[in-house]
Design a protein that fits this description.
By secondary structure, this protein is an alpha+beta fold. The chain has a single domain, classed as Alpha-Beta Plaits (2-Layer Sandwich). The protein is 27% helix and 42% strand. The protein has two helices and five strands, in the order βαββαββ. A five-stranded mixed beta sheet has the order 4-1-3-2-5, with helices on one face. α1 packs antiparallel against α2. The two termini are 21 Å apart.
Length: 89
C-alpha cells in the first residue's frame, strides 16, 4: 500500500481545512487521518493508489477558500494498510 504523509503550513486551522481534506480523501477512495498540530500546521496520513494520493496532495496545496497554504511537506512510503476509512484524529 502506498502512503503519503503531508504537513501543511500557513493559515490552515480554524478555516475548515480538516473537513475539506476528509471530503477530498473520501471522494478519492483513500484511507487515513487528518489532525491539527500544536504548531498550527495540519498533518495528513493517507493511503491508497498513487494517482489518488497525488490528487489529494494537489487539493491540499489549494485548500479551502478561507485557507492560505504557505508550504507543504510531502513524503511517500510503502507498507501495509493501516486505515479502513478517512477520519479526523
Amino acid at each position: 500500500m502506498l502512503r503519503a504523509h503531508l504537513v501543511i503550513y500557513g493559515r490552515v486551522q480554524g478555516v475548515g481545512f480538516r473537513a475539506f481534506v476528509i471530503r477530498e480523501a473520501r471522494a478519492l477512495g483513500l484511507g487515513g487521518r487528518v489532525r491539527n498540530r500544536g504548531d498550527g500546521a495540519v498533518e495528513i496520513d493517507a493511503e491508497g493508489e498513487r494517482a489518488a494520493l497525488e490528487q489529494l496532495a494537489a487539493a491540499v496545496r489549494r485548500g479551502p477558500i478561507a485557507a492560505r497554504v504557505e508550504r507543504v511537506e510531502e513524503n511517500m512510503s510503502e507498507g501495509p494498510a493501516r486505515h479502513r476509512d478517512f477520519h479526523s484524529a
